[in-house]
């Protein structure tokens, strides 16, 4: 096991500032934020927001044994992933951790990260700047009532089950600036139609993500209210974009849907209908969204300033994925 001095915030943010300067896009739109926004920023459940492992030391890991060791420690850590780590199954991440890839080298190959167990919660966790590929189960599973989770600037593809699932009464989650591609079941919110313990939880923000060549679940939501889906680019999604089911409340706004025959469903497969409000989206070579009911306004919880939907193809492409923080 090896350790390194704490990495300065200036170095972590330098790459994103360069992207903004090179593209001429507004700095606020592409520069990686220093702190979580959306639901992960909301004071609740004894936390003032999401800080991950900032209170603890920084270590660098290059193998699965060290990754599992530090991710499972009962004290805060910032864990830097240097290089490709190949393993099977899931590594459990417990409270107060930041897991961050170094440059563009941090890769999780074959396995995934599970936030928390039934006895050890995965609260206050940050996952950034990592590539996830070939997962034997989920690439990232936010589960077992984990809360205050920020998943930002990752690249996720070619998994077995879900690329990023939020379930089992987890709450206050932000999923931002990620590139999801080459997969079917992309991101689920809510464990199952019969897991009614998810009611009153599952508050999730999705913003500035690229869903490219992914078939479905962007997200598929059960029970959560509100789930806020804004400023994303949906591109070539074969089955559908967003699905609101089992009385979920989903707000879909300022997104760009391109080559998506069914941008939004109310109810899907055997799941009963949810509620879905759409506004200020752009639809290019896409069908009309289904809508129903009303949804709790996210501004009840946090402030946000959406970018124009028409800017999403260039803005999101310029900012998503690894090497941008």
UniProtKB/TrEMBL annotation:
Its main location: secreted. InterPro entries: PbH1, Pec_lyase, Pectin_lyas_fold, Pectin_lyase_fold/virulence, PEL, TAT_signal. GO terms for biological process: polysaccharide catabolic process. SUPFAM superfamilies: Pectin lyase-like. GO terms for molecular function: pectate lyase activity. Residues 54-263 form the Pectate lyase domain. Transmembrane segments: none annotated. Keywords: Carbohydrate metabolism, Lyase, Polysaccharide degradation, Secreted, Signal. Pfam families: Pectate_lyase_4 (PF00544). PROSITE patterns: TAT (PS51318). Belongs to the polysaccharide lyase 1 family. This is Pectate lyase. It comes from Catenuloplanes atrovinosus.
């Amino acid at each position: 096991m090896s350790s390194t001095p704490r990495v300065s915030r200036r170095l972590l943010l330098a790459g994103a500032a360069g992207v903004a300067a090179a593209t001429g896009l507004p700095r606020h739109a592409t520069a990686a934020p220093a702190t979580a926004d959306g639901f992960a920023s909301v004071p609740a459940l004894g936390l003032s927001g999401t800080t991950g492992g900032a209170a603890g030391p920084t270590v660098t890991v290059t193998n699965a044994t060290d990754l599992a060791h530090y991710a499972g420690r009962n004290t805060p850590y910032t864990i830097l992933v240097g290089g490709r780590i190949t393993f099977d199954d899931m590594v459990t991440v417990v409270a107060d951790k930041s897991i961050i890839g170094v440059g563009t080298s941090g890769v999780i190959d074959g396995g995934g990260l599970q936030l928390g167990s039934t006895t050890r919660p995965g609260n206050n966790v940050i996952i950034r700047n990592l590539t996830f590929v070939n997962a034997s189960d989920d690439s990232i599973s936010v589960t077992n009532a984990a809360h205050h989770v920020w998943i930002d600037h990752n690249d996720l593809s070619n998994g077995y089950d879900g690329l990023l699932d939020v379930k089992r009464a987890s709450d206050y989650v932000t999923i931002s600036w990620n590139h999801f591609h080459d997969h079917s079941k992309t991101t689920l919110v809510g464990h199952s139609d019969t897991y009614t313990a998810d009611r009153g939880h599952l508050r999730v923000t999705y913003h500035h993500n690229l869903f490219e060549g992914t078939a479905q679940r962007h997200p598929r939501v059960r029970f959560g209210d509100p789930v806020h889906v804004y400023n994303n680019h949906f591109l070539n999604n074969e089955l559908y974009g967003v699905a609101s089911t089992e009385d979920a409340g989903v707000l879909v706004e300022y997104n760009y849907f391109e080559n998506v025959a069914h941008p939004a469903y109310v109810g899907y497969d055997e799941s009963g209908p949810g509620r879905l409000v759409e506004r200020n989206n752009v639809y290019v070579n896409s069908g009309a969204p289904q809508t129903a009911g009303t949804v709790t306004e996210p501004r009840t919880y946090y402030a946000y300033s959406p970018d124009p939907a028409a800017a999403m193809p260039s803005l999101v492409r310029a900012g998503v994925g690894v090497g941008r923080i």
